């Protein structure tokens, strides 16, 4: 009896240790992500003038390498991966992730200025810091900061498919998008490792790019579900510009997980505006 009790006690202690270790590893990944963001901000701003006498092709390639590592994250995991549409790269590489649709207005002004400064330095500290465009004021731009999820936060948006129904992985609740405000739009992405993430869109704050922090996907769009049962699927994503092939991949993903697609409204039209 004492041996059995000791064995159970030891197993519980091991599970507790393993859980704490996994949590600690996840927190370290989150902090590491913040450190990388800080490094990117430094390279995009003050680093430029710290190295003003040493600017070379190596310096420029360092900055390019940092930027490319963001939008290309996950590509190596899947041959069918889709990266962010080019016009939204600027949002992903902005350390503050200001909404790309508006940030690009300032980018266009910078292109026309020939300022000789990196865009984000020009924008926040340099010659362009006082520019306030009528199409999008500075205050509006800073308010429209898109949330980019870290590993811990991302878990809260992960869903699985069980017995043909879409279920929140952590809580076990069925996906039900028709609750809440009228006209709310629910968006999804499938990561290059095959994980499904779903959340409610908030313009200028939460977009398809939020789920994977600007990383690559194999499918993206919007959906409607009632009590875990899919009612409609759309290939609408201004950030990833999914193709009909990517929507087909998502449908195959669902069918492979037991979802009955008969009666599900499927919109394969890919819009050309941000959505």
UniProtKB/TrEMBL annotation:
Domain of life: Eukaryota
GO cellular component: cytoplasm; nucleus
Keywords, alphabetical: Cytoplasm, Nucleus
Localization annotation: Cytoplasm; Nucleus
Main location: cytoplasm
PANTHER family: IQ DOMAIN-CONTAINING PROTEIN IQM3
Protein name: IQ domain-containing protein IQM3-like
Organism field: Juglans regia
């Amino acid at each position: 009896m004492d041996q059995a009790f000791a064995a159970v006690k030891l197993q519980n202690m091991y599970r507790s240790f393993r859980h704490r270790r996994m949590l600690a590893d996840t927190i370290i990944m989150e902090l590491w992500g913040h450190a990388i963001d800080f490094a990117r901000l430094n390279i995009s701003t003050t680093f430029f003038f710290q190295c003003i006498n040493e600017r070379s092709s190596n310096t420029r390639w360092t900055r390019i390498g940092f930027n490319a590592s963001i939008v290309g994250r996950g590509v190596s995991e899947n041959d069918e991966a889709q990266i962010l549409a080019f016009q939204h790269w600027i949002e992903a590489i902005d350390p503050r992730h200001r909404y790309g649709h508006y940030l690009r207005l300032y980018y266009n002004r910078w292109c026309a200025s020939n300022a000789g400064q990196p865009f984000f330095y020009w924008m926040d500290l340099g010659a362009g810091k006082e520019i306030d465009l009528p199409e999008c004021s500075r205050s509006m731009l800073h308010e429209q900061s898109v949330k980019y999820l870290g590993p811990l936060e991302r878990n809260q948006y992960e869903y699985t498919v069980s017995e043909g129904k879409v279920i929140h992985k952590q809580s076990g609740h069925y996906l039900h998008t028709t609750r809440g405000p009228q006209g709310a739009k629910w968006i999804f992405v499938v990561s290059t490792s095959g994980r499904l993430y779903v959340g409610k869109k908030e313009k200028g704050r939460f977009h398809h790019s939020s789920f994977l922090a600007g990383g690559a996907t194999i499918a993206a769009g919007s959906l409607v579900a009632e009590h875990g049962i899919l009612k409609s699927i759309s290939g609408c994503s201004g950030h990833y510009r999914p193709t009909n092939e990517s929507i087909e991949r998502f449908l195959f993903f669902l069918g492979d997980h037991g979802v009955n697609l008969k009666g599900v409204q499927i919109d394969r039209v890919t819009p050309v505006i941000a959505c």
